[in-house]
Write a structure and sequence with these properties.
Layout: H1 3-19, H2 26-33, H3 57-60, E1 66-73, H4 78-81, H5 95-107, E2 115-118, H6 122-132, E3 140-143, H7 149-154, H8 160-164, E4 166-171, H9 188-195, H10 197-205, H11 217-237, E5 242-246, H12 248-258, E6 277-282, E7 285-288, H13 297-300, H14 305-318
Parallel strand pairs: 1-5, 2-4, 2-5, 3-4
Antiparallel strand pairs: 1-6, 6-7
Helix pairs in contact: 5-6, 9-10, 11-12
This protein binds 3-phosphoglyceric acid.
Length: 319
Amino acid sequence: MNLEMFRRDGLQKVLKSILNCQRTGVMGLARGILVEFKPSASPTLVDPVSSPSNNNTSDSKKKSSEAALILVRHGESLWNEKNLFTGCVDVPLTKKGVEEAIEAGKRISNIPVDMIYTSALIRAQMTAMLAMTQHRRKKVPIIMHNESEQARSWSQIFSEDTMKQSIPVITAWQLNERMYGELQGLNKQETADRYGKEQVHVWRRSYDIPPPNGESLEMCAERAVAYFRDQIEPQLQAGKNVMIAAHGNSLRSIIMYLDKLTSQEVISLELSTGIPMLYIFKEGKFIRRGSPVGPTEAGVYAYTRTLAQYRQKLDEMLH
Ligand SMILES: O=C(O)[C@H](O)COP(=O)(O)O
């Protein structure tokens, strides 16, 4: 097997020819340097530390009894700082937003993360990457590129060990902030002066009334919650610990689903930038274990036994 074969036949074909040569022991070589990706799914990574029961291969197939779900709104963005309606405009974090993302990482540094989902917008992706610089497990978050066959094949990783030290990051437009239509780029105060405070409050915080040519929270929920249910919840059911870095409204709609809030209750839900929230997914149910109201270590996470065991294994592994 040589580089020419890779160039000519592409990785998948070469891998298949290797896997068919089991008797020659090439299989061992294959396992050593190649990790086959299934185009539809992200690579499955199981962190031997993340689920205490996963201390041997036979256990690694067992679904763990619970999984952690971390939600975090992006840190302050440059347009948050200017008090502009942002929506789906793709602006980066401010220096303060960077600091908030790093602080968020400190708060989740002892909580297992096997997969990360972000929106397609840079402020959410920056928040996730910066937060993970603080994680004690020191795994490397890697943005998966599945937008084309070439993107997939050119971003492949050829080492199983390296894969085990990585966390797949899946970006999804469905997790984007609600599209604020003709308000995007307008100053929130000027908009209130122009259209009236009450009208702006209706556009910002009603459930089913969209801003001019924009999305209502209900419309945002239709895409964000559908994506959560179809793509993220199955990973939690498989025992994967997940972090979602997204936006004020796309996360409000997901929390409405998790906490079974009514359209009236969700109106008063506000999320601070860069404050992580923790849920435990257990037996098909979501239990909130921390609130953005109490941004202190104790206030945000009431540890479960599994999380305490994970932290203990981290302590052992790192000392
Ligand atoms: O998109 C924006 O302007 C903010 O991220 C959220 O705005 P809102 O708090 O007014 O919904």
